[in-house]
């Protein structure tokens, strides 16, 4: 199956451009969320370098962010770049569990392989990818049982329809 970021842009914008004044856009550099301002009249989810996984990850953050967060650059979240120490890595992983659980579900809805991202290649600690993926899986299973956030449900349905994927089950999230 072919995975083209243009399909994600089209599907996302069909789902949310009118109702949330938000568009998914291709970027050249680091991903970022930019709320509407005096120069651009719509909110922008900018993903990196045309990477399909980057688009899914950035959309997952948006699908989780509340209304007040969506009015702030990068949702006003704390971020410490690659090169984190042990404590910084623990903080990073704590704030990434929910968006990565949503990203995993989005990936499954496309039939796209999900890779958990510890995002610390140059840090002073080696992240425990398996332990982090286990926590992300637990969150995904919790969403599956209790319901994904409403906007996530809308986008997941659009992705499943486009890519011909079935409803998600707990078995989809096996490690």
Q: What do you see in this structure?
A:
The longest helix is centred in the middle third of the chain and has 25 residues. The protein starts with a helix and ends in a 12-residue tail after the last helix. It is mainly α and 175 residues long. A hairpin with an 8-residue loop joins strand 2 and strand 3. A 3-stranded mixed β-sheet has the order 1-3-2. Helices cover 49% and strands 9% of the residues.
Residues in helix, %: 40-55%
**Chain-averaged pLDDT:** 92
Shape: globular
DSSP strand (E) fraction? 5-15%
- DSSP summary, beta strand count: 3
Largest sheet: 3 strands, mixed
The total of helices stands at: 5
Distance between the termini: 22 Å
Task: Please supply descriptive tags for the structure shown above.
175 residues; mainly alpha; three-stranded mixed sheet; 5 helices; 49% helix; globular
Topology:
Layout: H1 5-20, E1 22-27, E2 32-34, E3 43-48, H2 52-64, H3 86-110, H4 129-146, H5 150-163
Parallel strand pairs: 1-3
Antiparallel strand pairs: 2-3
């Amino acid at each position: 199956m072919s995975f083209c970021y243009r399909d994600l842009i089209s599907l996302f914008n069909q789902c949310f451009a009118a109702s949330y004044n938000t568009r998914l856009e291709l970027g050249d550099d680091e991903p970022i969320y930019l709320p509407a301002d005096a120069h651009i009249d719509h909110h922008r989810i900018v993903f990196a370098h045309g990477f399909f996984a980057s688009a899914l990850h950035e959309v997952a953050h948006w699908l989780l962010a509340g209304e007040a967060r969506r009015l702030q650059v990068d949702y006003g979240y704390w971020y410490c770049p690659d090169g984190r120490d042990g404590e910084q890595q623990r903080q990073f992983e704590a704030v990434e569990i929910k968006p990565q659980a949503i990203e995993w579900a989005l990936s499954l809805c496309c039939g796209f392989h999900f890779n958990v991202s510890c995002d610390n290649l140059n840090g002073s600690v080696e992240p425990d990818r398996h332990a982090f993926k286990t926590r992300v899986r637990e969150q995904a299973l919790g969403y599956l049982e209790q319901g994904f956030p409403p906007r996530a449900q809308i986008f997941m349905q659009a992705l499943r329809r486009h890519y011909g994927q079935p409803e998600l089950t707990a078995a989809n999230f096996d490690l």
